[in-house]
User: Fold these one by one.
Assistant:
Number 1:
Amino acid sequence: MRGENSAEREALIISQGDFLIERHTARAMGAAHWHDHVEINLLLKGQMTYLFNGRQEHVEAGRLVLFWAAIPHQTIEVTPDTPLVCIYLPLVDFLALPINRKVRQSIMQGRFLNEMQPQPANTILIPQWVQEWQEGDTVRQQLIADEVKLRVRRLILDTADEHGSSARKSLATPAGPAVHRAEMLTDLINTHYARPLSMPALAELAGIHPSTANKIFRDVLGISVNEYLTRYRLARAMQRLADTEEPILQIGYSCGFASVSRFYDVFKQRTGTTPKQFRASFERK
């Protein structure tokens, strides 16, 4: 069990968007959470089920998973006393990787990458990273970060030819009605995020009363529909700032922000930088 000071220090690193690798005992979470990283997880034994983007994703030991952690996620079922390694890769570092663009975009749009087969090497190498990260100097820590990026590139290369990981049947238990409705709402947001999308309009598309839709969303994902919509729009804007040379004004409007000031305010509030500064820092990297 990690000490309180260690946990607080790791929480601070995550909140600041820095690279981190740590190991702890996995537990079911009371609510979904999110942060500004691409997250890579490895179960060392047992099984667990994520609720990610309104869907259940079942994970077995030895298989790396990767997802865009700005999308709300939550562990809902975990084998007792299950050791879990979590790697938090800053978004800018992920976007800078020379990887398949379509796969990268699909991750930014909510794809959950899950290795098809357990890899024995994972359970040897990755715990070693944890130990060296905790005990090593800055030079060794940088080496580990570089090795993680190479491993991510291999994971994405291995899955680049898959025909939609989200289309594979989940091995989890069947979802309840609330999860199915939340899944429908996230699908609608993911499809219609670029247009003006009020809560009543979204509920009408889903065939659900607005108050019911918002309650379901909060119960399943732990946030409001509007909060999810804002985060999804922001994630798409960040992806396009990194992937394209489109004018920033055009990106803001085409990602559903009603005005330039609204786009800049949300971007600055959520990322600590402006869209222009974000693009410039990515180009330098």
Number 2:
Amino acid sequence: MRKLDRRQALLSIGAAGVGLAAGAVPEFLRGSDATTTTPRHVRKAAHTAPPDPGYAHGRPLQALRRPIHNLHDLQPAAPPNAVALTIDDGPHPVWTPKMLDLLAEFGVPATFSLIGEQVTEEPRLVQRLVASGHQVSDHTVTHPLNLPNLTATRIREEIGGAHDRIAQTTGVAPKFFRSPGGAWSQQIIDVAAEHAMICIDWQVDPRDWARPGTMTITDKLLRAQAGDILLCHDGGGDRSETIRALRTVIPALKQRGLTFVAL
């Protein structure tokens, strides 16, 4: 099947994400045959998918390097005073809702890199994330830190599988891919491109996943400059330090004249 047809099919199936609010469950979660006709409510939901929350407002983005490390690596250009907050390793049943509440409080859009297995486990939470105006990014099915060393087949399964789960759950096909741990290879970049995804790295990494302390996370994030991509986490363990740090960092960066955008 041609790539365009495949993406259209996924969006038609997946928009069950909108149907989730009404108690519907995506076909792939019910274990239905792939040849089954898409239910009427799913076909209708596909037309109600939310608009692209990214700063480009749906215009095609071009990566000037692969992977990108900051907003200056993208065209069309982001606003000159923009930074992008990216949140990895969710969805998590405890910390993702807290992160979403915090972002809503400050009116900040973010880009969430989602693990496919967890998307399957928390479909309604992923749907809430999309409905709240945040961007979604593929972060593989199982988060293997040795992704470049896996077989070609396994790499395709990890990247394509997470892409499909996100699309089927939300009705939104991810436009971005982040490799676990920032481990890249040409093959990974090429497979992501086959799914029309831009590979994203980061500029500011407080290593919050290691729980170095709220102050350490805060200090590192406060070093952000216009154009930076910031890396934080809502999965992988206790993220209370990250939540506390962002409560200080977000208003402080805004006071400096920086604005938060989704990719």
Number 3:
Amino acid sequence: MTLTERLNQYEKLMRLDKPIGILLLLWPTLWGIWFAASGHPDVLVLWIFVLGTVLMRSAGCVINDYADRDFDAHVARTRERPLAAGRVSGKEALLLAAGLAGVAFLLILPLNKLVLLLSIPAVLLAASYPYTKRFFAIPQAYLGIAFGFGIPMAYAAIQSHIPLEAWLLLLANVFWSVAYDTEYAMVDRDDDVRIGIKTSALTFGRFDVTAIMLCYALTLALLGYVGWRLGRGGWFYAGLGVAALLAAYHYTLIRGRDRALCFKAFLHNNWLGAAVFAGLVLDYAHISTYLCGLSDFCN
């Protein structure tokens, strides 16, 4: 392969051509940053976490494909992935993943010691998740911890400690991850049975749709409780309301268990995460504007 062709394979291996994973990882991280910083995050911290999200999601995709390279070759949707198709070697993949994780670690060096310590379990979670599909009945819950670990790291970076709210937000992300990744797993249900890996779609069985909707409800309930604890207002709850309507729309897509519609619901979760974040941003901006106006009036 030419250099351009090889870089194109690396791009596909990192899923940079499919940014949905980056967005699903980014939204909960941004929730954590905005809550931790009371709506006014430091620009440097914000960019460190945004870039770190892209790098670690890319590294996680590489490790996932390395772990699943033998399985992917037997699944129609994944058999053309670079590792499964033999266009990238296992050694190349490991070196690429290590390089991405190394750059992500360099990014957090300006932050405090607690963030550096938390980066160790963050890397271990990302690297070990693909292997949980061999033995864990609901690996999507493990994914939720891995995808949400930016939340306690954000609190550590901004507040230098991790309060209860951070762990509640992480738990909310676990339920959200189980919801959207079960929708994703419903697409590959038959292939997963044939090759012998475990997914929540198989574990939930005929209750898969019910379980997904319950996870959505728990996600929104936990987010609402965190917002209540932190004194959030109408804009935040309006964002949760929009997210609830989107979850209801997902029900109309998945209730028939059509593969294409289940995949559409999975992709559509980007808008659910965005709705929560938009409500959070608007709420803090509204409160800030109100306080500034009150200050001017008082002066």
